[in-house]
Design a protein that fits this description.
Shape of chain B: globular
Oligomer: heterodimer
Radius of gyration of chain A: 54 Å
Largest sheet of chain A: 5 strands, mixed
Strand order of the largest sheet of chain A: 5-7-8-10-9
Number of strands of chain A: 10
Strand content of chain B: 15-25%
Strand content of chain A: 5-15%
Radius of gyration of chain B: 13 Å
Order of helices and strands of chain A: HHEHEHEHHEHEEHEEHEE
Structural class of chain A: alpha/beta
Order of helices and strands of chain B: EHEHEHEHEEH
Strand order of the largest sheet of chain B: 2-1-3-4-6-5
Chain lengths: 428, 125
């Protein structure tokens, strides 16, 4: 009890002493300061506080006591005409107020009991609340962590999905290339068997024609013409079979390092004579620093020859054949250029580019997409098998390179061959 | 003029007969045809050819085996053999300049003049 009015204090003390139901010990202070010291021990159950003391007045007194002992219930003792202060005190956290002179002992005791009880409950509630808050905070932080982890996992999954999609695409590409190779193998097996079985009868026919040529009356024009037709037909059939074998035997390359310049020169040697005869001027532009590359020499000669023959066919009354060979960089974009392993060419990759250009009739726009199709030819009946360019395309692709055919703006056709320098096709 | 003796070993009878007809028509060759590969060695022994035209793909014994047998026989190892077969293409032969694995090859169907040229190249005049 902190009360500076002695009479009031005595009254209250007597009142409390008389009560049997509760056993209380009262300590009385007239001033706040010593009371605060006593409260520091924290063994007081309830404080009866007069707000107006010699060393403190008003709500401030309450605040000071609350600050000193936040868990001890405080009952405020007020004067008869001081209810507003009392109410303010309640609002500030006092448990109750008692009007001096008005209270009877039971009311007093009850107020004290209630005050203690209420304070206990309040404290319990505060504790529970703070515990709950702690739990919520913990749960929240758990949730936040879990959420972050989930987000990270989702990102991981998305990345994995991307990688999976890419791997699937690559797998599909590899699979289709594999199937293509397997088909080629089957065709190869079939082709050599078929070729052998067809070539034998062709050999018989051609020997027969040779014999008849000597024995039949050649003054009959029809006889000699007939024999010529038969012979030409045999040759044509033989060319087709040979073309088929070429096409089919591409499952294996015989690869070794070669100077591409020399391979080109060899191929040119084979046609130079015919070019001169057909008034076709030959222009060569070979760049410097062409490295050796791993190629199947015979097949690449076949490629060059094929392009030269096509160009020659397009210039029946003469013209010019321009051949260039240079090391170049692949531009960053373009068909077949990309960063993935399955792409044929990587951007900025160094390659050897061979261009074969002629001043011939060009390729009609409506068929230019078909030139690489097997058996597509504009020279049927004139010895064309339609296999030449499809074989060229196969050979280049097996070397890990590319071939492209396009018409030039100024007329004529340009065939572009791209040879890889490193990372080339493996020998199968 | 002494005719050169040519033995042709090929399981296609019609081919053998026509080659014989065509070669003998030139007047320069005497030709014997053998279609049973199992009789090949006997034919060589009996005919003693100056050159053998040998097919490869034949039932029972193939041209490769026959060639091996002949090469390992003292009596016959010096007889020139030209493989005349459908299992190679003209390009394969010319790529290798007419010689594959040390032997002269001709790809069927072969023009007569080329056949004759090859025979002359591989026999003594």
């Amino acid at each position: 009890m902190i009360e500076d009015d002695r009479l009031v204090a005595k009254l209250i003390q007597d009142m409390l002493a008389k009560v049997d139901e509760i056993n209380c010990e009262t300590e009385w202070f007239e001033r706040l300061a010593p009371a605060l010291d006593r409260l520091a021990k924290n063994d007081i159950d309830v404080v009866l506080l007069d707000l107006f003391l010699p060393d403190s007045a008003g709500i401030d007194t309450l605040v000071k006591v609350q600050t000193r002992c936040p868990v001890i219930p405080i009952l405020v003792l007020t004067g008869l005409d001081d209810e507003s202060t009392a109410l303010k005190a309640m609002q500030s956290g006092a448990q109750d107020y008692l009007v001096k002179g008005r209270e009877d002992v039971f009311h007093f005791i009850r107020a004290i009991r209630y005050a203690i009880e209420r304070k206990r409950i309040q404290e319990a509630l505060k504790r529970t609340l703070s515990e709950m808050e702690e739990q919520v905070a913990a749960r929240t932080s758990d949730l936040t962590a879990a959420n972050a982890q989930l987000s990270a996992e989702v990102e991981e999954r998305q990345k994995a999905e991307e990688a999976l999609k890419q791997a699937y695409t690559e797998l599909k590409e590899t699979q289709s290339r594999f199937i293509q190779a397997a088909k080629m193998q089957v065709v190869g097996g079939l082709a050599s068997g078929v070729a052998h079985e067809v070539k034998n009868p062709l050999a018989i026919i051609s020997q027969g024609v040779e014999f008849l040529n000597k024995k039949l009356p050649l003054d009959d024009e029809n006889v000699s013409l007939t024999l010529k037709y038969i012979n030409d037909a045999v040759m044509r059939a033989n060319d087709i079979i040979t073309g088929l074998l070429d096409f089919a035997s591409l499952s294996k390359l015989d690869v070794s390092p070669h100077d591409l310049k020399i391979v080109l020169e060899n191929s040119l040697l084979l046609v130079k004579h015919q070019f001169v005869k057909n008034h076709i001027q030959l222009n060569e532009d070979i760049g410097a620093g062409i490295p050796q590359i791993s190629i199947d020499k015979n097949r690449i000669e076949q490629v060059f020859l094929n392009l030269f023959m096509n160009s020659a066919d397009a210039m029946p009354s003469g013209g010019a054949l321009n051949i260039s060979m240079r090391v170049e960089n692949i531009p960053a974009t373009g068909e077949g250029v990309g960063r993935r392993k399955g792409d044929i060419l990587k951007p900025e990759e160094k390659v050897v580019v061979v261009r074969v250009e002629d001043t011939g009739t060009g390729i009609p726009q409506e068929i230019i997409d078909k030139v690489f199709d097997p058996f597509f030819t504009t020279k049927r009946g004139k010895g064309g098998t339609g296999l030449g360019l499809s074989i060229v395309k196969n050979i280049m692709e097996m070397h890990g390179g590319k071939v492209d055919i396009a018409n030039k703006k100024e007329g004529g056709t340009r065939a572009t061959l791209i040879f890889r320098i490193q990372d080339q096709a493996s020998v199968s | 003029m002494l005719k050169k003796k040519i033995l042709i070993i090929d399981d296609e009878e019609s081919f053998c007969r026509l080659v014989k007809l065509n070669l003998e028509e030139t007047g320069k060759y005497e030709v014997r045809a053998e279609t049973q590969s199992v009789n090949a060695i006997r034919a060589v022994k009996e005919f003693k050819p100056d050159l053998i035209l040998l097919d490869i793909v034949m039932p029972n014994v193939d041209g490769g085996e026959i060639s091996q047998k002949l090469k390992s026989d003292e009596a016959f190892k010096n007889i020139p053999i030209v493989f005349l077969t459908a299992i190679v293409t003209e390009r394969e032969v010319s790529d290798q300049k007419g010689i594959i694995a040390g032997r002269p090859f001709l790809a069927k169907p072969v023009p007569l003049d080329k056949l004759i040229y090859c025979i002359e190249q591989n026999t003594l005049a």
